[in-house]
Write a structure and sequence with these properties.
26% of the residues lie in helices and 16% in strands.
């Protein structure tokens, strides 16, 4: 999903269908194809995983562990496990970043604060109808602004990038959370048609972000829209 580091380890102790039901989700066809258990659950054996050290670990690549229906005790159990491996960096990604605020008092968020990156997805600055049941764009931005003001490192993923109102306006919105990086990628679920920006609009967004001294990582799948 990401390649902005030489090695990124994924860790998904919370498994099953995500309540956000994003139309473009790449995991839904994978679960269907391989007959994976759709039940939302904490996989207890994953809490025995040795996390190693000096790793960049990405949590939430297969289901959103901070979605509203995930029990808090599951999240705490995962965080407790990660706390035992303080030499790693951890990136949590959620489309419900307001839920991050529930855990700012956890020892992981306090003791390893400098080793955490809190990330959310912002497909656009527009809430496109029928695309996702995730919280609205304004709610995501508001939560990320609060987290940034508390000193947490933030990151934004614009994937799949969808039609936005204006490059400058969208860049201002993203910059308001002081992200260490903005990732931009395209829709990879070709069975789903999204309203996508054209090449000129994407390049304008990248230019506006870089003008605000924001590091932009272009995912390889963005090439389809930049031809």
């Amino acid at each position: 999903m990401y390649n902005f580091r030489n090695e990124i380890y994924t860790y998904n102790p919370i498994k099953g269908d995500c309540r956000h039901q994003c139309s473009y989700c790449y995991m839904k066809p994978i679960r269907w194809r391989y007959h994976q258990n759709p039940t939302l659950r904490l996989d207890q054996k994953e809490l025995n995983t040795k996390m190693g050290k000096n790793r960049f670990v990405f949590l939430g690549s297969s289901t959103d562990m901070f979605a509203a229906d995930v029990p808090s005790e599951w999240i705490v159990a995962v965080m407790d496990h990660l706390y035992d491996y303080p030499e790693n960096e951890y990136m949590f990604q959620s489309k419900n970043p307001e839920r991050f605020l529930e855990f700012v008092g956890h020892k992981l968020f306090i003791g390893l604060k400098e080793r955490l990156i809190l990330c959310t997805t912002m497909e656009s600055d527009i809430d496109h109808d029928g695309v996702s049941k995730a919280p609205m764009i304004a709610a995501r931005i508001d939560a990320m602004q609060k987290l940034s003001s508390m000193g947490f490192k933030t990151m934004i993923t614009v994937e799949p990038v969808m039609m936005f109102s204006d490059a400058s306006k969208f860049a201002d919105m993203l910059a308001s959370v002081n992200p260490v990086q903005v990732n931009i990628g395209a829709n990879t679920n070709r069975q789903v048609v999204l309203i996508e920006p054209n090449k000129a609009e994407i390049l304008a967004l990248i230019k506006e972000l870089e003008a605000r001294n924001i590091t932009v990582h272009q995912k390889s799948n963005l090439e389809r829209l930049l031809k």
